[in-house]
Amino acid sequence: MKKRVAAIVLMAGLGVAGVARAECTLGTPPAVPDGSKAAEADMQAASAAVKKFMAETQDYMSCVEFEGKNGNGNWQKKYNDAVDQMQKLASDFNKQLKAFKSK
Question: How far apart are CA 39 and CA 36, in angstroms?
Fold first, then answer.
């Protein structure tokens, strides 16, 4: 009986790890409008899209880190690439937001 319970627990754990691994998908960053030409509604929509992407990327990074702790060797590159993508998007958006506010 103990072996059966242990086998069920092990299979459940492997299932969770498999699900977590399958969910590690990095989305595509949203387009950032030209702040010098964009309407306020466009900038608000872009802001919401950027915030959503950042949150989704944080989830992705947690997933990738979990993978790394469970044997996937290239997780640090994936993690760092995601950080780079977030920083580039934030920089691009802030540049366009500044242009929007200066018009």
Answer: 9
